[in-house]
Amino acid sequence: MNLNENIVDRVLSRSDYIRVKSLLNSTRDTLIFSILHELGLTISEIVDLKVLQIDFKNNTLNLPNRVISISESLINEINTYMHKVSPTKYLFFSRQSPQITPRRIQQVLKNVSNILGYKLTPSLLRKQVVARMIYEGKSSSEIKDFSGLKQVSTKYYLDNLEYKLLLENITDDRDRLLVSFIYETGISAKQIVDLTFSDVFNKTRKLRIKLDERYGTSKFRFVNLSTTLIKSITNFKEKYNLRLTNNLFYNSQNNPLTDRRIRQLILDIGTKYSFNNNFNYSALVNSFIFNVLDSKSIKDSESELGFIDLRSYYYDKSNFSKLHHVESPKKIKGGENNA
């Protein structure tokens, strides 16, 4: 299985899909799950789905804002369901109402999640549908027409050349180190706030990051640091006579930078370097993710990145778009350290 196939299969594997369908209690719930999986419809679209919207001759579904194709297997499944329950107006109904409720669909997904052992949402299934279409080589317009999305998210990133040019034009030591840190580790602004020099292990070239409770029993994860970044951190520490207990990034009052201030600093740097509005904290994180995807397997990538939902937000490298500065670079002077 290659990189793209692996990503497409991460939200819900084919074997798990078949297993769930065999364990759901009713034909109705099984069909709801099939529609969510194949078409990526929203809960409200399923609630409002009418029998007359299904074109069995052309294998299409006529939604208010688009017409989408349905596979032969799903058409057959709908046919089997309709012969069994004989719906009149709405495809899905209950004993108490001619139309199923959103709460009932949420209950179906809760049952599915219990079978799988992890939470599965319409949003995740929708993203898998988009991922599948990207893997199949569908264009952005085809994906938008099918999914109803107004736009397909693009992940902006800096290539190595733009990154090096950016560093060369940042004159403030802290700001230059901050950009390097995000670009090479991809950690969140909130995680940067708590970092001290004691979290940097020079000999093993590792960075220790504190995790929150949702990651289970492990309190920390470790990120590899390049020799260049280790050297930059060491030089910065020695130049400003900082101790192990000092925060890596601080303001003029020697207080740790807040995550909000870190994000604003990156925006300011992008403006001074003449990038467009797509340059922000996420663009630097995307740069790290792009580089990881370019060199590692999905499993290793998720371990390196430190989060389990890579499958939901980064489908493959075709989702990434390279950023360029739009004018001649300007020397970027720091603000907060010199204030």
Describe the structure.
- With 339 residues, the chain is mainly alpha-helical.
- The chain folds into two domains: 3-147, Intergrase catalytic core (hpI Integrase, Chain A, Orthogonal Bundle); 155-322, Intergrase catalytic core (hpI Integrase, Chain A), CATH 1.10.443.
- The chain is built from 16 helices and eight strands.
- The protein has helices spanning 3-8, 14-23, 27-39, 43-47, 72-85, 102-116, 122-135, 140-147, 160-168, 173-185, 189-193, 227-239, 259-272, 281-295, 298-305, 310-313, and strands spanning 54-55, 60-63, 66-69, 155-157, 200-201, 206-210, 220-224, 320-322.
- It has a three-stranded antiparallel β-sheet with strand order 1-2-3. It has a three-stranded antiparallel β-sheet with strand order 5-6-7, with no helix packed on it. A two-stranded parallel ribbon has the order 4-8.
- A hairpin with a 4-residue loop joins strand 1 and strand 2 (60-63).
- The longest helix has 15 residues, at 102-116.
- The protein is elongated, with a radius of gyration of 25 Å.
Going across the biggest sheet, name each strand in turn. Answer: 1-2-3
Instruction: Look at the structure and give the CATH class of the largest domain.
Output: Mainly Alpha
Number of strands: 8
Q: State the shape.
A: elongated
Radius of gyration: 25 Å
Structural class computed from helices and strand pairing: mainly alpha
Report the sheet-strand fraction: 5-15%
CATH architecture annotation of the largest domain: Orthogonal Bundle
Number of domains: 2
**Straight-line distance between termini:** 54 Å
What proportion of the residues is helical, as a percent range?
40-55%
Which fold name is given in CATH as the topology of the largest domain? Answer: hpI Integrase, Chain A
Count of runs of 4 or more consecutive helical residues? 16
